[in-house]
Amino acid sequence: MNNKRIRMRMLEVDLKQWELAKLMGVSEPTLSKRLRKELPEEEQDRIINLINHKVAGPIETNNGKVILRDYDGTLNGLYDIIWEVSSKVADLEEKVNKLLSKEAQ
């Protein structure tokens, strides 16, 4: 079974695959396809951290930064995750704009 750590953590906290997909901002079929092949350890760690944050509960704000109370009671910042996602969105927007400009010519 691929991505056993992720699947085991989902079972431990009773998190359904569709719930994890929603949490990650992807569709359930997309998540299912990604989990078919073994993900790199770093990506598995990020997903497990996301699951742990979901279990932790309430989101708090601290001087404009979003933080979550982790399952073990510690506070963890989401700034790095948000930055990574926003930079990928910016890259995709740039690619789409290039494609649209080529089509317009």
Topology:
Layout lengths: L3 H9 L4 H8 L3 H9 L4 H16 L2 E4 L2 E5 L5 E3 L1 H26 L1
Antiparallel strand pairs: 1-2, 2-3
Précis, in short:
The chain is mainly alpha-helical and 105 residues long. Helix content is 65%, strand content 11%. Residues 70-77 have low confidence and may be disordered.
Description:
- By secondary structure, the protein is mostly helical.
- It has one domain.
- It is 65% helix and 11% strand.
- It has a three-stranded antiparallel beta sheet with strand order 1-2-3, with no helix packed on it.
- Helix 1 packs parallel to helix 4 and helix 2 (17-24) packs across helix 3.
- The radius of gyration is 17 Å and the shape is elongated.
- The model is unreliable at 70-77 (pLDDT under 50).
Gap between N and C termini = 49 Å
Q: How many β-strand runs?
A: 3
Cα shape: elongated
Q: Helix amount, in percent?
A: 55-70%
What brief labels describe this structure?
11% strand, 3-stranded antiparallel beta sheet, 65% helix, mainly alpha, 105 residues
